[in-house]
């Protein structure tokens, strides 16, 4: 009885018919046929090759995909004003696109798929391309301006984009966190490849930024079997933690600190240096943002020299063997002969190592609306929205001021060109006028992540007489 029950408990198996057995045998035989094995192998190889090609193409910053697909797509998806629809706005816009772009770069880098410039980088060995700056040898004079990575969250992914990037400037970072100006505060003028922003020093604050910067040092130290202080005290490891590349940290005062109280202003900048200086190769003093009321009044000779002298002194006390150099960022709107002379005198009198010429402008050059393709919305933005303008229209003023500051400062301070530089020709023209370093940001917004390699390639052609 138990044997019968056990047999009944077995799973019921349906007997296969002779036709089913013949079909299965035929299918198995077909799979074993040389022609079918070759076909299946080719299909597998093509599939694997397609995946590999897609990976290499999509993660190569030189591919046209990033300029001609990613940039327009991001602008189309994030086409609002960054004010929630529930509050009467049009939803995610330029600022959100900026945030998502950085998150994508950071995410790809963290999973081991960083965007980077593949292939040969012939421009690195081009005669006349390299620069000696503050005791460091840089392979190119190209740098990313502040504003792209405001919160020290994407340093390594940005350096990974291209070996053409020699300096990354992060910030602006204020002593205490602040939200900045209300949204909307970033506006696109795509017909002229321009931007208007009025962020107003939105910042995570110096404490959080210092934690992020220190974490990079600790991870580097652990990876290389060193202590944190050994990394900071090394003569051969720059604060960027990338060979032949430098990290600049831009600092500013909080909006609640009155610009008329110079002692309070000095305390703000000194606090930033004390917390962030040891993680920087260069400290950039921003006294020129048009979006922080009263800030530009600090460019007057007496107050500027007092402030810069205090920052230079604080930088000399940082807990790092190679102390950070101090550079000041000035306004393109402070362009009278007296302005240039006073700022130059303050730079020379304080021991500052260089000047970034220049920040964004509150002026609206006619070029930004000159194209017949300019939309009504762009005209409205240009005429109605206040804030700092960046883009190609700023180039003439940048070149003019670079030449004038170079003449005033001579070889006693380094001039950085920043504003309107979007091509290798622009970069070389700025260098001819006296700039040692050439900075960009808006050009990358409209040209994609391959902007730096393309510009370096164009510079190579000019230097070698091919362009």
TrEMBL record:
Residues 131-460 form the Dihydroorotate dehydrogenase catalytic domain. Pathway: Pyrimidine metabolism; UMP biosynthesis via de novo pathway. Coiled coil: none annotated. Its cofactor is FMN. InterPro entries: Aldolase_TIM (IPR013785), DHO_dehydrogenase (IPR050074), Dihydroorotate_DH_2 (IPR005719), Dihydroorotate_DH_cat (IPR005720). Pfam families: DHO_dh. This is Dihydroorotate dehydrogenase (Quinone), mitochondrial. It comes from Discina gigas.
